[in-house]
């Protein structure tokens, strides 16, 4: 078993200490950034660098020639991901405290100036929302305030706040939503801790732009797919891949009729970095592939197909649906605004599933 484990590790970790699964997607992302030379010799702090989006973003920035400060609370995971990687230094950071990028025991280089901050630090799985709604809200509000305070006081050139498509809330329609639309949120439901605090954080960003002239841009990712999700990720999409890789069947708890827009992680990251390189101050951008709307049932079928496992989907009850409008959480985002910057996604939903499964299967 030990030899098998070492063989699996070698498939993930390159001989130079880098994480090949991460770098593969990072290279793809970097190759599709609009105006990539914008990042030449920039020092970029990535907050939440041990997370799904943050980790690939850090590697993509390194590919683009930026100096990267990979920040997070879990320094062991940061070292596992980035230890020994040229151009990336590790920094322990707690967003509930004032930011400090000066040298300490966890930093290899003392960068005198941070040019750009990317805030990808946020709980993003349903288990956190259910079990720690208070911490979720504080991270998304007071944490962002600490980021913006630092940026204002240290003349940081740009801040990218990674928000969420969940800020749109609930609508009676099910068509792709533009950045100017806003739906209903129940402010007295603890599950609203995530989208409501993301909304508040976006307003805080807009307030710093207005009052202090800070250059802040906002990204609203949709459902993001990729092999870099953590073992603790409680989203159904992550569980589908775990079940399939273990040879278990997939069972949906609903008919899965709702249509979603997905984006592969490399497309997400190239979109985020394009917002920084050619986007506009004070603007928000949806990050998704609007050309590939997919029902959750079809998504489950895609995962089952690539893993050759059975997928069980409940049959809708006869007469269960009617034509009366009902509120439903937004699951489709319109990416027209981001495309107007010259960005375009490279993977549709099925291709994203296939690539995710292929890379995950390499480490089994």
UniProtKB/TrEMBL annotation:
Keyword match NAD? yes
- Name the SUPFAM superfamilies on file: NAD(P)-binding Rossmann-fold domains (SSF51735)
**InterPro entries in the record, alphabetically?**
Epimerase_deHydtase (IPR001509), NAD(P)-bd_dom_sf (IPR036291), UXS-like (IPR044516)
Q: Which UniProt keywords apply?
A: Decarboxylase, Lyase, NAD
What is one term from the GO cellular component aspect held by the record? cytoplasm
Q: Which GO terms describe its molecular function?
A: NAD+ binding; UDP-glucuronate decarboxylase activity
Which residue numbers delimit the NAD-dependent epimerase/dehydratase domain? 44-287
| A biological process term (GO) from this entry | D-xylose metabolic process
Keyword NAD listed? The answer is yes
Q: Which domain of life is it from?
A: Bacteria
Cofactor names from the entry are: NAD(+)
User: Which is a Pfam family this sequence falls into?
Assistant: Epimerase
PANTHER family in the record: UDP-GLUCURONIC ACID DECARBOXYLASE 1, UDP-GLUCURONIC ACID DECARBOXYLASE-RELATED
What is the name of this protein? Answer: NAD(P)-dependent oxidoreductase
């Amino acid at each position: 078993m030990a030899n098998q484990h070492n063989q699996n590790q070698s498939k993930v970790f390159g001989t130079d200490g880098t994480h090949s699964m991460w770098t593969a997607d990072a290279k793809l992302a970097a190759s599709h950034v609009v105006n990539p030379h914008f990042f030449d010799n920039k020092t970029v702090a990535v907050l939440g660098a041990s997370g799904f989006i943050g980790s690939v973003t850090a590697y993509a920035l390194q590919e683009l020639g930026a100096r990267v400060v990979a920040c997070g609370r879990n320094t062991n995971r940061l070292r596992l991901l980035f230890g020994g990687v040229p151009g990336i230094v590790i920094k322990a950071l707690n967003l509930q405290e004032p930011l400090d990028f000066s040298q300490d025991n966890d930093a290899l280089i003392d960068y005198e100036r941070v040019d750009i901050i990317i805030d990808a630090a946020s709980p993003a799985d349903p288990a956190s929302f259910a079990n720690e709604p208070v911490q979720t809200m504080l991270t998304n509000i007071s944490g962002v305030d600490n980021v913006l305070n630092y940026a204002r006081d240290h003349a940081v050139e740009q801040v990218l706040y990674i928000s969420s498509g969940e800020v749109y809330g609930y609508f009676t329609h099910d068509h792709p939503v533009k950045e100017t639309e806003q739906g209903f949120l129940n402010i007295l439901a603890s599950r609203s801790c995530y989208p409501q605090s993301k909304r508040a954080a976006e307003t805080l960003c807009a307030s710093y732009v207005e009052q202090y002239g800070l250059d802040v841009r906002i990204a609203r990712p949709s459902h993001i797919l990729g092999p870099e999700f953590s073992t603790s990720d409680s989203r159904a999409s992550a569980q589908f891949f775990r079940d399939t890789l273990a040879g278990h069947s997939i069972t949906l708890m609903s008919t899965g009729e709702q249509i979603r827009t997905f984006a592969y992680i490399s497309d997400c990251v190239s979109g985020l970095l394009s917002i920084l390189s050619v986007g506009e101050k004070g603007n928000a951008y949806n990050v998704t592939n609007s050309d590939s709307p997919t029902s959750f049932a079809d998504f489950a079928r895609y995962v089952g197909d690539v893993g050759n496992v059975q997928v069980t989907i409940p049959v809708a009850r006869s007469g269960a649906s009617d034509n009366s409008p009902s509120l439903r959480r937004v699951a489709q985002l319109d990416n027209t605004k981001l495309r107007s910057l010259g960005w375009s996604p490279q993977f549709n939903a099925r291709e994203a599933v296939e690539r995710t499964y292929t890379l995950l299967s390499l480490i089994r």
